[in-house]
Design brief:
Layout lengths: L2 H30 L4 E2 L3 H31 L4 E6 L13 H13 L5 E5 L5 E8 L23 H5 L4 H8 L2 H37 L17 H50 L4 H29 L8 E4 H17 L4 E5 L5 E4 L1 H18 L5 E7 L7 E7 L31 H11 L3 E6 L5 E7 L2
Parallel strand pairs: 6-8
Antiparallel strand pairs: 1-4, 2-4, 3-4, 5-7, 8-9, 9-11, 10-11
């Protein structure tokens, strides 16, 4: 589960929590601030019986004292004794709905939790109990009177119906539902905006990339968010930069290829012209044409090989072979070329070094470096090939050094790119593809390669190969 999951989870959790808190607050507010109503509990009936007996036996004064004592005790049940003029004995404020319910109860003949007392002086009093606690009617008691029975105003009067549907709707916590709905809508809108905005940004970026604009950047527009969408934006930027680099590389490659092919083609045309003008020199002209054709063939082969590596179309066929035997073959093949410049090739390698890879590709990669060293090394010098293997579990290090002038420090990274040659490259025949192929082969085998200048003079190329 990634960061995006937890953001979804937290948003939905907050929405549900807000809904629950809203409903709970609504219920709590209604319970704590409930309008007092006629009490129908056993406790209320007991209080009415006590007040009725006191009124009949002790009279008005005794009843007032009893009611005052109950009021001072701050009971949740308030007993009211109301005369014919609808005045309470303690002159407390009365709600008209209480009187309506009490009188309706007397008229209906149930007289549950309501009592009417007539004294000897023919004065009648209505006794009932009002409670601020939620009503919990006793079993068997009739429900509170509805509007058609003279009860207090309710939703039934507003709608004019008393069927079960409207009764259920009247009891439903509409305010709590409204709070929960608004909270859910708010958080859902925030959630939709939070995730739709970067997706829209990515969609527009893909449209720009599809139209050929690879300079578009998405990561900067993601803000400070840290989740899978921001990672996707960074990967998109990396993809477009890589595509841009590949397209630029192909453009440069096409430019260099056209330039490199133009030179031998020009020499071939020149040789053909000389052969036509001076037939006695046709043999030399044909030899020159063959040489240039072979160079073009070799360069095209190297370009095709490099293109296969860069496109990832090379499927390595690895096998175990002895590296020291491969190095012996390379030294033997390069010795003839080195003899023309009186260069000695010194090989320092263990007797047995076994590696896994495609032998012909590895031969070509190492041979390219050796031949480069012979090309740029001065006459009567030494080219060293050192192979180090510290243990059977550590990588193998191959270092090829020459005593040439090296390259500029700014060119050390670029010499492994196609058609890039050092500042002294114009003095030597070549087209700058060999080291690029070496780098692709070594990295395809899981290794690394780099170059360095030596002091006071010299140049080295180091290749690291996994065992």
């Amino acid at each position: 589960m990634g960061r995006l999951f937890w953001k979804f989870f937290l948003f939905f959790f907050l929405a549900q929590l807000t809904t629950a808190l809203g409903v709970s607050a609504f219920v709590l507010f209604n319970v704590t601030n409930q309008t007092p109503s006629i009490d129908q509990s056993p406790m209320g009936q007991s209080l009415i019986d006590a007040a009725q007996s006191t009124l009949q036996l002790g009279g008005i004064q005794a009843t007032k004292q009893l009611l005052s004592r109950w009021e001072s005790q701050r009971l949740a049940h308030h007993v009211y004794v109301v005369d014919q003029g609808e005045q309470d004995l303690l002159n407390r404020k009365l709600d008209a709905s209480w009187l309506d319910v009490a009188q309706q109860s007397i008229k209906s003949g149930t007289q549950e939790n309501v009592a009417k007392v007539t004294l000897a002086n023919q004065q009648s009093y209505l006794i009932f109990v009002v409670s601020s606690r939620p009503n919990r009617p006793r079993a068997g008691l009739p429900p509170p009177p509805g509007p058609e029975e003279g009860g207090r105003p309710s939703y039934f009067k507003r709608f004019g119906h008393s069927n079960a549907l409207f009764k259920a709707l009247a009891k439903f916590p509409m305010k709590g539902l409204l709070i929960g709905t608004l909270a859910s809508a708010l958080f859902a809108a925030i959630l939709a905006w939070y995730f739709s905005k970067p997706i829209k940004t990515l969609r527009l970026a893909f449209e720009h990339a599809a139209s050929g604009d690879l300079n578009i950047s998405v990561a900067d527009k993601m803000g400070s968010r840290k989740d899978e969408l921001s990672d996707l934006g960074r990967h998109f930027d990396h993809m477009t930069s890589r595509l841009g680099a590949v397209l630029q590389g192909q453009t440069r490659l096409l430019h260099h290829v056209s330039h490199e092919l133009r030179s031998p083609l020009a020499r071939i045309h020149m040789a053909l012209g000389l052969a036509l003008q001076t037939p006695e020199k046709a043999e030399n002209s044909l030899a020159r044409i063959e040489l240039e054709a072979n160079r073009m063939d070799k360069m095209i082969g190297e370009l095709l090989e490099l293109s296969r590596f860069e496109s990832g179309m090379v499927d390595l066929k690895k096998e175990d072979f002895l590296l020291n035997e491969l190095l012996d073959m390379i030294v033997e093949d390069a010795a003839f070329e080195a003899s023309n410049k009186r260069i000695r090739i010194a090989l320092n390698a263990p007797q047995t070094v076994k590696i896994s890879g495609q032998q012909d590709l590895m031969h070509r990669a190492i041979e390219n470096v050796v031949r480069n060293a012979i090309k740029y090394a001065p006459n009567d010098s030494i080219v060293n090939i050192d192979c180090k293997s510290h243990s059977t579990s550590k990588p193998i290090e191959i270092t090829i050094t020459d005593q040439g002038s090296g390259v500029l420090e700014t060119e050390l990274e670029d010499i492994f790119k196609p058609f890039v040659r050092g500042h002294s490259g114009s003095q030597v025949v070549g087209h700058g593809v060999g080291l690029a192929i070496t780098k692709q082969v070594i990295e395809a085998h899981g290794g690394k390669v780099w170059a360095a200048n030596l002091k006071p003079h010299g140049f080295s190329v180091t290749m690291i190969l996994p065992v």
